[in-house]
What does this fold into?
Amino acid sequence: MDIHTDIPLKNYTTMRLGGNAKYITEAHTAEDVATIYQNAKAQNLPVFVLGGGSNVIAKDEGFAGIVVRIRIPGFEVVADEPGSTTIRIGAGEQWDSIVKRTVDMNLSGIEAMSAIPGTAGAAPIQNVGAYGQEIADTLVSAEAYDSLTNTFGTLENSDCDFKYRDSIFRSRDKGRYVITSITIKLSKNQPQPPFYEALQKYLDDNGIKIYTQQIIRDAVIAIRTSKLPDPKVNPNTGSFFKNAIVDSWQVDNLKRISPDIPLYDMGDGHYKVPTGWLIERAGFKGQLINGIRVHDKNALVLINESATSYHDLAYARNAIIDKVRDMFGIIIEQEPLEI
Ligand SMILES: Cc1cc2nc3c(=O)[nH]c(=O)nc-3n(C[C@H](O)[C@H](O)[C@H](O)COP(=O)(O)OP(=O)(O)OC[C@H]3O[C@@H](n4cnc5c(N)ncnc54)[C@H](O)[C@@H]3O)c2cc1C
It folds into this structure.
């Protein structure tokens, strides 16, 4: 197992910021993961798990421990039933190549999550989702190394406590489990309307009335390409903020502040407010703050145009959070985790 020393984390994260990792290595098998943790423990070093680095912000001080990049491969059909196929996928597989592969097999359940960067093993961490699908809908279980007990085990879907962009992996048990593979169950039926609003609009605008997995994948890729910057060209982490969730008692006040505020009833006493709309109303869309550009097509996305430090990003982030709070009384939350 190769271990590299003093490596810039900006080379491994799509926001391209941050200091050095003291050590960086790769895990190609589940056993590698256990070995790395045991060695780190013996040397009293912290470990940080990295997939594709598309949802991680590295700080300027770097990481004085071992960064382990998960590269575990695998794609195995474990059950084939009349209406569904169940597949186990190595945590290091590229998420979008898995989506493509399952669409090629005429399976549905993750086709609307096409073109999300990153690895399969990271998908459960924030319950990745897009255009009306999220991994919680299809995940059967995740096999994981438990760094607390130094054992391997299986977490069933219900163990993960999935919520909107959240799970035990980024809240209660943050940093505890290393996912080594995921098992998903996909349907053999064609995708069924009603589709997510923006997706349905694209289908209607393009006169599309037949909904195959491939048609939905192509539509999602076209929508995403038109409004999301490519991190290889414009460093970013996708949505930098989560959408805001407010309580029903806040609704009247929000409508008084802005009668046209979009509010989506979640049916549980909460409403979702698109944070991109709040940021746009706060006047930041298209603005450049300390080298960080608020994307002119989608104000949820922050692009590192010329920032040289985490400090620059934090300044821009805080300016946005503070103004949104002052205008609407809503405290918006950063989506990417930090190392
Ligand atoms: C252009 C762009 C568009 C995006 N669009 C979307 C979108 O539509 N929907 C969405 O939900 N997200 C989106 N994202 C965010 C990101 O792609 C996802 O969160 C993705 O799942 C991150 O995968 P990764 O492998 O890059 O994880 P990383 O960024 O490397 O890691 C993310 C977190 O997961 C942890 N982690 C990673 N792998 C493992 C593992 N095997 N076991 C345990 N912990 C692990 C890390 O420690 C870290 O805390 C987008 C990002 C970009 C840049």
